[in-house]
């Protein structure tokens, strides 16, 4: 019984036999066309990239030279920009914001990025649905749908792909129902899709730990949203436990999802044909060869049963590697749960006391009234 050992350095050979478009989120340093060569260097069959800085509202326009080189690289290296590439939107975009200035600024960047996709002949664009801030949840969903409808009218071909979120705070999109409701309000449904992030789903309470729970999640997805909308996957393990509502990505097999969740992915036919993108940690040195190694792990998992000896050894190996971080985050989660339970108990006790006091005051008031009426009758 021997654990799988992925290659430790680039370049990584791109698989010609894998049935999945496994890939990573690659760098565009030096120009947008570099994303294609970086993807090939890591052995990606699908890939993601930012279209401009993810933390600045504006970026310099792409030169025609870079646009042409991007297309040339895709052709020479065998990437179809219509099906293999899933760019990621800016982190700051919040189309659900109740603040008009933030919504307007977000829309301007949103439109700019989709127009960049169309310049590159890329047909999909993934983005975070945003936050309601202190506003109404339903109204936030309506604003998001309104802005998607607006951008459809100002662009031609690119499909906007909504990513599910971890359910933290005021963020929308933490439930499948949120995304369904937005899609229902989108007029051109042929130009809207969904990207499922495995870490986000797990953090939001969707269990994928076993084959049974994995299949249940996708059955729920089909029933609530529909397979026709699935346009991509972000493949990440989770540093935090189930239902933690914490967006903490972990390397494959080292987190609370474990390698079994990804063995299920690598053997689920309905996920073939769409970009499956790694966003796992690359370390302090931004060593993107992690993606190349993890792509090979995923390709190794294809066709493997849960009782395969090499698979079991590999799963145990990666589980041990992440043990310390899991223990740390489990402790934080347990402490948070205990604190919330204590606060809830106190609130319930206060409510019971307030109710009892109200009943006593009411009872006392009735007694006083009866006494007054009795005295009045005697007179």
Write out key terms for the chains shown.
single chain, 379 residues, alpha/beta, TIM Barrel, 6-stranded parallel β-sheet, two-stranded antiparallel sheet, 8 strands, globular
Could you explain how this protein is built, in words?
The protein is an alpha/beta fold. The protein folds into 2 domains: 21-321, TIM Barrel (Alpha-Beta Barrel), CATH 3.20.20; 323-379. The protein is 47% helix and 9% strand. It is built from 11 helices and 8 strands. The chain has helices spanning 34-41, 64-77, 100-119, 137-154, 176-185, 198-203, 211-224, 258-265, 289-301, 309-321, 323-378, and strands at residues 21-24, 124-127, 159-163, 192-197, 230-235, 237-238, 249-250, 275-278. The strands form 2 sheets. Strands 1-8-5-4-3-2 form a 6-stranded parallel beta sheet. A two-stranded antiparallel ribbon has the order 6-7. Helix 5 links the parallel strand 3 (159-163) and strand 4. Helix 1 (34-41) runs parallel beside helix 2 (64-77) and helix 4 (137-154) crosses helix 5. The longest helix has 56 residues, at 323-378. The mean pLDDT is 93.
